[in-house]
Backbone:
C-alpha cells in the first residue's frame, strides 16, 4: 500500500517533470513566433524580442568560436603529424641518397682507374687511384719495409672508401661531370640521385613551413589544451541555456496575451502548441491540487496527533488529581482527629 509520504513524493516529482514540459511548450511557442513574426497582427513584446535576438547572437558567436578553435586544433595536430612524417621521409631519403652516392663514388673511382674519365675534371679521384696503384706496386716489391708500409697505407685507404666515395660523388653535382660518366648504370644512378635531391628539397621547404606554423601557434594550442576548449564548451552551453530562457519568457508572454493575436489565420502549428500548453497546465493544476490536499491531510494528521497527545496529558492530570483528592481527604481526616483531641483537652 502506498503511503501518503510516498504519494506526496511522487506528486512532487511529477510536478517537476510537468513544469519542464510546460517550459518546453513555452519555448516552442516563443521560438515559432520569433522565427516567423508574420503570425502576429502587430509586433509584440519588443523588449523581449530584443533579449531573444541578443541571446541568439551570443549563442551563434559562442558556437562559431568553438568551431574555429576545434578546427584550429585539428589543423595544428594534422600539421604536427605531417611534420613528423616529413622528418621520417627525409631521413629515409638521406639514407637512400647516401647509398646512391656510395654507388656513384665507387663507379667514378672504377672508371677513373680505367682512365675513362677526364683527368682534369676528376683530378682528385685520379690522384687517389694513382696513389693506390703505387702502393699496390710497392706492396709487391722486394723491400720488406716497403711492402709492410704500403700494405698498411692500402688498408687505411680501403677503410676510408665510403668517405672517399661520398666525396667523389659530389663531383657529379656539376652537370657536365655527370654526363661524362659512361654506361647505363651510371645514368640510372645520376637520375636516381637527382630525383632524391629534388624530393628532399621539396620536403625541406615543407618542413620549414610547418615548423614556422607550429612555432607561431604553439602557445594558442597549449592554451586550448589547458582549458580553452572546455571554456568554449561551457560558453556554448551557457549561451544555449540563456537563449532558451529568453524564448521561454517570450512564449509565456505570448500565451498570456493570446486573446489579442490568436485568430483564424494563426498557423496550425501554433494552435497545436497552444492546445498542448492548456492541457499541460490543466495537468499541472491537478497535480498542485493533489499536493495541496496531501499537505492539508498531513497537517490535519499532525493536529490529530497533537490532540491525542493533549488528551493523554489530561488523563495523566486527572489521574494525578484523584490521587491529590485522596491525599487531601486523608489530611482532612487527620485534621479532624487532631481537632477532636484538642476539644477533649480543653474541656
Residues:
Amino acid at each position: 500500500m502506498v503511503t501518503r509520504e510516498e504519494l506526496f513524493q511522487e506528486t512532487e516529482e511529477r510536478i517537476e517533470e510537468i513544469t519542464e514540459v510546460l517550459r518546453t511548450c513555452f519555448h516552442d511557442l516563443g521560438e515559432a513566433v520569433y522565427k516567423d513574426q508574420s503570425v502576429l497582427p502587430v509586433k509584440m513584446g519588443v523588449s523581449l524580442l530584443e533579449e531573444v535576438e541578443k541571446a541568439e547572437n551570443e549563442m551563434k558567436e559562442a558556437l562559431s568560436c568553438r568551431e574555429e578553435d576545434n578546427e584550429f586544433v585539428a589543423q595544428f595536430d594534422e600539421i604536427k603529424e605531417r611534420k613528423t612524417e616529413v622528418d621520417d621521409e627525409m631521413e629515409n631519403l638521406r639514407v637512400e641518397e647516401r647509398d646512391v652516392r656510395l654507388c656513384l663514388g665507387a663507379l667514378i673511382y672504377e672508371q677513373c682507374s680505367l682512365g675513362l674519365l677526364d683527368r682534369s675534371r676528376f683530378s682528385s679521384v685520379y690522384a687517389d687511384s694513382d696513389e693506390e696503384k703505387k702502393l699496390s706496386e710497392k706492396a709487391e716489391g722486394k723491400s720488406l719495409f716497403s711492402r709492410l708500409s704500403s700494405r698498411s697505407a692500402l688498408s687505411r685507404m680501403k677503410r676510408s672508401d665510403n668517405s672517399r666515395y661520398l666525396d667523389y660523388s659530389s663531383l657529379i653535382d656539376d652537370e657536365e661531370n655527370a654526363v661524362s660518366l659512361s654506361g647505363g648504370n651510371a645514368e640510372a644512378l645520376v637520375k636516381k640521385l637527382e630525383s632524391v635531391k629534388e624530393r628532399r628539397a621539396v620536403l625541406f621547404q615543407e618542413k620549414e613551413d610547418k615548423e614556422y606554423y607550429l612555432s607561431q601557434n604553439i602557445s594558442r594550442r597549449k592554451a586550448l589544451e589547458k582549458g580553452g576548449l572546455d571554456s568554449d564548451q561551457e560558453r556554448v552551453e551557457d549561451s544555449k541555456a540563456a537563449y532558451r530562457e529568453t524564448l521561454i519568457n517570450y512564449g509565456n508572454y505570448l500565451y498570456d496575451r493570446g486573446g489579442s493575436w490568436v485568430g483564424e489565420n494563426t498557423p496550425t502549428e501554433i494552435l497545436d502548441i497552444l492546445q498542448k500548453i492548456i492541457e499541460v497546465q490543466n495537468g499541472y493544476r491537478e497535480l498542485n491540487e493533489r499536493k495541496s490536499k496531501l499537505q492539508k491531510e498531513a497537517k490535519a494528521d499532525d493536529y490529530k496527533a497533537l490532540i491525542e497527545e493533549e488528551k493523554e496529558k489530561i488523563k495523566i492530570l486527572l489521574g494525578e488529581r484523584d490521587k491529590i483528592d485522596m491525599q487531601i481527604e486523608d489530611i482532612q481526616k487527620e485534621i479532624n482527629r487532631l481537632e477532636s483531641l484538642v476539644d477533649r483537652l480543653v474541656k
Remarks:
- Residues 141-151 have pLDDT under 50 and may be disordered.
- The CA atoms of residues 95 and 101 lie 10 Å apart.
- The chain is about 85% helix and 0% strand.
